């Protein structure tokens, strides 16, 4: 299935964005987020960015006050996912200009839309920043 | 809730207002029970029913936000979502679709209503509308939806708008999964896309094929040339990674393919600057091209580069690559041994675990001792979790396949003893199981086992550690079972009965007491045998070596020292039967020491006779009972020791002999299927409901108590109970039994009946309802007591 979910969580453990690529009920989501966030936030800088959880892996990275967590299948290339997370951040940075947590909070739909451009069905479909941002910019102009 | 004010109804709060409002609240407003969020939900519920598209959409937007971030349920709004999707205005449609993506699932019943709308949007001329529909479909697509919309997808697969095409390609995966017939329709177009090698769509196409190949590699082998072309030409790292994954699945199926791709892959490994791509190459080589030595060598070199890097991510991946090589190419691990071992003390627990796994996979007969030594040293320096992880992996690896790698059991048993003493050890159960298991299977190791067990038992500090109780239980059992191999049973006895054993849980204490029983019986037996022998030799040659022995024996603690003396002194005075014991226990049991032993038993276990724990009480009574039997015998001897020319076999020695022999028989393990193999004899019905037993046993008189354990009170209770049970039967027949029982009882214990009561016309009782009958009889019985 590739990518199972993408979460953005702040240092206090509050979810800022949650995108799931397989269906989970609300209780399952809450439980999952709680478990994973606890595990990842407890780790420090010297430890590696991959955590094994149940039968899949979580790849995470911290940017300023926000943790980006991506849950992937066991056969995914972890370094590629790390680069993918970086791509997300760079794309958002380019769009919002010096993106910070507040931008994501107030423009959640835009962040979602950006993600949807990049990942469909749990697989990466677009990895070029310009290609991702072009439709968004077009759409905003049209509206 | 208060009635909404005019302000609330006139102005709708936008999403931004909502978020600002949430942020203005105190920190604990993020919990769903907070009043602000509830109020907002109320507003949303009101607003969403409005007919104005704008109001409805904003309400839906807010609802989606609350659902996604705070986990509020929005399934009740499903129909509204469908409505919003049907609005022609693009921004509103967008809101609707994102709400659908967030909350619809296979169970949502309004999904079918979406079909037409999706169809319309999929055929729209506005590329963005199409993409909205495609994105939504990729998340919520059910079998029905996919079937109905298959044609539209098919058309889109060859659309000229690349933006739409690539999304259609991505959706195809979901469609294939949910509706298999679509494969026949769409596959050709998919392959066309692959061949067209448009850069924009490449990621999507390759991604789809990667997933498909993972499921079913065989079917995609014919497409290998296409993938090969991409491998050579494409410069996009993401695409290359995907292609490598595909080849990792295809190469094992076709050796010629493997041969062809080895070189390009090695080339990429050498050239690339991207670590992710390099790792993917390493992984591909290691997992599916491991027959090509040169490729593997190159991969190992690159893996080493990762291993020695400071970045923990790279280190972890290097270890991961090595661990999959360990099985087929152990030389790779041996080469990098130092790096792996040093990773055992890394700061990151993941890295430590990965290196531990590699080390364990290298264990073989030759190096198990060395590796265990190294690992135990590391475990002493580590935190509790890792320490236990190390112990667990050592225990598992050594016990695999019935201890395949262990050739020196004496060493292994002393290792188990050492492990028990590690401060953080929590693997009590496994160690216990292994100690007992080895004891049963390996006869030669029992000596060492008893030695290790003794060391564990005499240490009073260990009793305080709850994690070790199971190990101590095993040690006690082993000491009792193989007591004949012990150097000093007296010491053992003291250890088993020491006061600190009160810290043990009852079941383990019971094991201790049972072992003490076995040791006691053994000591008594050898003592009595020895007495016989000395008595007969005494009779034979008229001297009293036995008395001399008792003179020589010092305090009972110095058993070991005196045993040497003993041997020299009287080598031939002991019957050959227990010289073969190989140990000098028989020579140590003097009269004085036996008396001390018995006294010790009485002192230590006496207080437990009334223990509330059934297991303990039973065993204590057993052992004290035997002690009572022999005590007289032993004490008598002190008076008669000089006069006994004729040895008559006393009751005590007969009993001890019996018990000793029953203990020395070895009980082997019982196979798990043994019970099933026994054929049930005819006439034995195993599955009846035991409640019917009452009918059968109701008329059996219980004897008035003469057993030693229970007082008369108990026996009367028993009889009374049987009356009760009999009385509570449904049939009228048993009630006559109950009446007969009662009258019997009355006859026997007339003395105790307080009232000179008239025997109530019992037959009349039968006609009363059950409960009343019961109550009458019960009250009669309470009169008796």
Automatic annotation (TrEMBL), chain A:
Compartments (UniProt record): Endomembrane system
Similarity annotation: Belongs to the adaptor complexes small subunit family.
GO cellular component: cytoplasm; endomembrane system
Protein name as annotated: AP complex subunit sigma
Gene3D superfamilies: 3.30.450.60
Lineage, broadest ranks: Eukaryota, Viridiplantae, Streptophyta, Embryophyta, Tracheophyta
Domain AP complex mu/sigma subunit: 3-142
Any one biological process term the GO annotation gives: intracellular protein transport
Family annotation (InterPro entries): AP_complex_ssu, AP_mu_sigma_su, Longin-like_dom_sf
Keywords for this protein: Membrane, Protein transport, Transport
Automatic annotation (TrEMBL), chain B:
InterPro entries on file: AP3_complex_dsu, ARM-like, ARM-type_fold, Clathrin/coatomer_adapt-like_N
Subcellular location: Endomembrane system
Domain Clathrin/coatomer adaptor adaptin-like N-terminal: 40-497
Family annotation (Pfam families): Adaptin_N
Keyword Protein transport: yes
Gene3D superfamilies: Leucine-rich Repeat Variant
Biological process annotations from GO: Golgi to vacuole transport; protein targeting to vacuole
Keywords assigned by UniProt, alphabetized: Membrane, Protein transport, Repeat, Transport
GO cellular component, one term: endosome membrane
Similarity-based family: Belongs to the adaptor complexes large subunit family.
Name the record gives this protein: Clathrin/coatomer adaptor adaptin-like N-terminal domain-containing protein
Protein species of origin: Nepenthes gracilis (Slender pitcher plant)
């Amino acid at each position: 299935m590739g990518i199972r979910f993408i979460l953005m969580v702040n240092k206090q453990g509050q979810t800022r964005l949650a995108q799931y690529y397989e269906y989970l009920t609300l209780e399952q989501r809450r439980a999952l987020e709680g478990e994973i966030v606890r595990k990842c936030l407890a780790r420090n800088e010297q430890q590696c960015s991959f955590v094994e959880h149940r039968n899949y892996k979580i790849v995470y990275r911290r940017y300023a006050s926000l943790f980006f967590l991506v849950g992937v299948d066991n056969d995914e290339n972890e370094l590629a996912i790390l680069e993918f997370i970086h791509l997300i951040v760079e794309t958002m940075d380019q769009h919002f200009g010096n993106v910070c947590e507040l931008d994501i909070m107030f423009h959640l739909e835009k962040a979602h839309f950006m993600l949807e451009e990049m990942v469909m069905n749990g697989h990466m479909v677009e990895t070029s920043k310009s290609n991702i941002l072009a439709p968004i910019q077009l759409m905003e102009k049209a509206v | 809730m208060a009635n909404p004010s005019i302000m609330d109804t006139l102005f709708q709060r936008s999403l931004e207002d909502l978020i600002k409002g949430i942020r203005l609240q105190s920190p604990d407003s993020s919990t769903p029970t907070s009043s602000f969020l509830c109020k907002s939900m109320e507003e949303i519920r009101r607003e969403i029913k409005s007919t104005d598209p704008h109001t409805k959409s904003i309400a839906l937007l807010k609802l989606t936000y609350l659902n996604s971030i705070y986990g509020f349920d929005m399934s009740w709004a499903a129909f509204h979502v469908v409505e919003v999707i049907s609005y022609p205005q693009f921004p509103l449609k967008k809101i609707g679709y994102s709400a659908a993506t967030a909350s619809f699932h296979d169970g949502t019943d309004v999904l079918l209503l979406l079909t037409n709308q999706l169809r319309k949007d999929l055929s729209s001329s506005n590329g963005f509308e199409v993409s909205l529909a495609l994105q939504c479909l990729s998340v919520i697509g059910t079998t029905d939806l996919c079937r109905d919309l298959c044609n539209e997808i098919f058309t889109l697969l060859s659309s000229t708008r690349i933006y739409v095409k690539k999304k259609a390609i991505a959706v195809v995966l979901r469609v294939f999964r949910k509706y298999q017939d679509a494969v026949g329709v769409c596959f050709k177009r998919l392959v066309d896309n692959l061949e067209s090698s448009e850069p924009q769509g490449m990621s999507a196409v390759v991604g789809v094929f990667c997933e498909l190949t993972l499921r079913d590699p065989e079917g995609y082998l014919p497409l290998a040339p296409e993938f090969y072309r991409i491998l050579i030409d494409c410069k996009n790292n993401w695409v290359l990674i995907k292609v490598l994954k595909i080849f990792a699945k295809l190469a094992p199926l076709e050796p010629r393919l493997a041969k062809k791709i080895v070189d390009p892959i090695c080339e990429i490994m050498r050239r690339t600057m991207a670590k992710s791509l390099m790792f993917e190459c390493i992984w591909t080589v290691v997992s599916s091209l491991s027959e090509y030595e040169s490729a593997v060598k190159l991969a190992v070199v690159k893996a080493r580069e990762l291993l020695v890097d400071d970045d923990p991510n790279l280190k972890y991946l290097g270890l991961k690559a090595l661990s999959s090589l360990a099985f087929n190419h152990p030389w790779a691990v041996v080469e990098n041994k130092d790096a792996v071992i040093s990773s055992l003390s890394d700061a990151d627990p993941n890295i430590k675990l990965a290196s531990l796994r590699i080390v364990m996979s290298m264990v073989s007969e030759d190096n198990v001792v060395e590796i265990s030594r190294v690992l135990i040293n590391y475990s002493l320096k580590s935190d509790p979790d890792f320490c236990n992880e190390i112990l667990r992996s050592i225990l598992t690896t050594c016990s695999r396949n019935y201890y395949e790698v262990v050739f020196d059991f004496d060493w292994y048993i002393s290792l188990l003893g050492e492990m028990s003493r590690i401060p953080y050890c929590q693997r009590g159960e496994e160690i216990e199981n292994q100690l007992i298991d080895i004891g049963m299977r390996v006869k030669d190791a029992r000596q060492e086992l008893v030695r290790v067990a003794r060391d564990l038992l005499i240490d009073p500090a260990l009793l305080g550690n709850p994690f070790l109780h199971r190990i101590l239980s095993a040690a006690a059992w082993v000491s009792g079972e193989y007591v004949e191999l012990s150097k000093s049973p007296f010491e053992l006895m003291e250890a088993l009965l020491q006061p600190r054993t009160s810290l043990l849980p009852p079941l383990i204490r019971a094991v201790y007491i049972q072992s003490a029983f076995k040791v006691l019986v053994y000591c008594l037996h050898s003592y009595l045998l020895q007495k016989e022998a000395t008595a007969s030799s005494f009779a034979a040659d008229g001297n009293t070596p036995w008395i001399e022995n008792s003179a020589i024996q010092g305090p009972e603690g110095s058993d070991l020292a005196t045993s040497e003396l003993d041997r020299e002194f009287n080598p031939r005075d002991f019957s050959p039967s227990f010289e073969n014991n190989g140990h000098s226990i028989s020579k140590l049991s003097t009269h004085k020491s036996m008396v001390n032993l018995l006294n010790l038993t009485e002192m230590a276990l006496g207080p437990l006779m009334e223990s509330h724990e059934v297991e303990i009480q039973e065993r204590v009574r057993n052992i004290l009972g035997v002690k009572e039997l022999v005590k007289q015998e032993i004490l008598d001897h002190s008076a008669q020791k000089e006069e006994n020319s004729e040895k008559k076999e006393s009751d005590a020695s007969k009993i001890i002999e019996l018990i000793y022999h029953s203990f020395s028989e070895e009980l082997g393990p019982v196979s798990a299927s043994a019970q099933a193999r026994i054929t049930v004899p005819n006439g034995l019905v195993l599955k009846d409901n035991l409640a019917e037993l009452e009918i059968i046993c109701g008329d059996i008189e219980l004897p008035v108590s003469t057993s030693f354990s229970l007082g008369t009170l108990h026996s009367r209770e028993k009889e009374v109970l049987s009356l009760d049970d009999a009385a509570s039967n449904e049939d009228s027949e048993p009630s006559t039994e109950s009446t007969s029982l009662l009258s019997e009882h009355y006859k026997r214990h007339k003395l105790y009946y307080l009232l000179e009561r008239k025997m109530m016309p019992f037959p009349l009782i039968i006609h009363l309802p059950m409960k009343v009958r019961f109550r009458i009889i019960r009250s009669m019985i309470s009169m008796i007591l």
